[in-house]
Amino acid sequence: MRSIIISAFLSIGGLLWVGTTISAFTIPTIPSRPATTFTRLYDTPENFADVATTIADAAGALAGKTIVVKYGGNAMTSPELKAGFCQDVATLQKLGIRVVVVHGGGPQINSMLEKVGVESRFEGGMRVSSKEVVEVAEMVLCGSVNKEISSTICSAGGKAIGLSGRDDSLLQCVKKINKDGYDLGNVGEVEFVNTKLLNDLLDMGICPVVSPIGTGIGEEKDVAYNVNADVAAGRIAGELRAARALFLTDIAGVLDKEMKLMPNLSCDDIDSLIDDETITGGMIPKVSYATSAVKLGVGGAFITDGRVPHALLKEVLGGGASGTGSGGGGTFVSL
Q1: In Å, what is the CA distance from 214 to each residue of 12, 67, 131, 194, 302?
Q2: Where is the Aspartate/glutamate/uridylate kinase domain (predicted)?
Q3: How far apart, in whole angstroms, are the C-alpha atoms of residue 322 and residue 57?
Q4: What is the maximum span of the chain, computed from C-alpha positions, in angstroms?
Q5: Within a 10 A sphere around the Cβ of 59, how many other Cβ atoms?
């Protein structure tokens, strides 16, 4: 009786058994998990080969390449989704895929602002960031939120280090001027990304977990700027020429006027959908982050439903060698 360990396969539409006997192969329970824990990888033996081939094709196409993930929304606040996300990052690392995580933390910032009595407001959909607001945001994002994510990735078997955008001038910013004339305070627009720092860590097999607090440039190098996490993720992905950028959100993806998911769109398609008002309101900035990343040189961008368990793995590996996603968990954007 021979034994094998399957550590990198998770469900894509139904999945597998770890800790039971399959024909002549006995699969031992993963030591770090309780003996009673089972992970389903397939429902039927016939489906197993298809799933394994899809995962292998996707992993082979992305091995040694970089993906950038914007992590936020419900995927950050649900304990189950949070654990699943960190497991996904660790799994992708084991498959030889380089991962950068850029996280948000709006609800956590709001909670702390309320506790310390600092007022905050939004103008034009963006948080007005006074010096006091940025101090609280930096404390929350670069402290508890950032370190919890990096620690949980490590606990899941990956390697991660938490970084602020101010560390080694990772995110160098200038003051953002709102198009509607609002003074947003210390809200930053990323001008330069220290890609050497990120690549050095990635070359060592480490996932950089980046909190979007940037630093000023020149005489303002000691100024802290609050940066939109989606914008930071898109810019980092573009500067790294990442193979993929994923934006985990609390929406199913881009929907047509009949509220049906559109799984694949080009940048031109998105422009047309904005013009005919299929894409409206708060969806416009979400697709804009994705199209901006693609135009900066990213191989493709996902607007992914982060409320789906293991959404990261399903979209990165679910499309096989094509790398265009599972087709059911969001919208893939390309040139």
Answers
A1: 37, 21, 13, 11, 24
A2: 65-304
A3: 8
A4: 71
A5: 21
Contacts of 328 (CB under 8 A, 6+ apart): 261, 263
Nearest to 230 by CA among 299, 282, 162, 178: 282
For the segment(s) 44-334, the CATH number from 3.90.190.20, 3.40.1160.10, 3.30.300.30, 3.40.50.2020 is: 3.40.1160.10
Nearest to 302 by CA among 232, 230, 239: 230
Q: Is 280 exposed, middle or buried (0-12, 13-18, 19+ CB in 10 A)?
A: exposed
Give the other-Cβ count within 10 Å of 158's Cβ: 22
Residues of the chain with CATH 3.40.1160.10: 44-334
**How far apart, in whole angstroms, are the C-alpha atoms of residue 134 and residue 116?**
13
12-68 confidence digits (pLDDT tens) = 444 443 333 333 333 333 344 444 444 454 455 668 888 889 999 999 999 999 999
Token look-up 């709001």 returns 110
* Nearest by Cα to 293 from 251, 246, 329, 325: 246
Question: What is the DSSP secondary-structure string of 246-287?
Answer: EEEESS-S-B-TTS-B--EEEHHHHHHHHHTTSS-TTHHHHH
Q: What is the pTM of this model?
A: 0.84
Q: Residue 276, Cβ neighbours under 10 Å: how many? A: 9
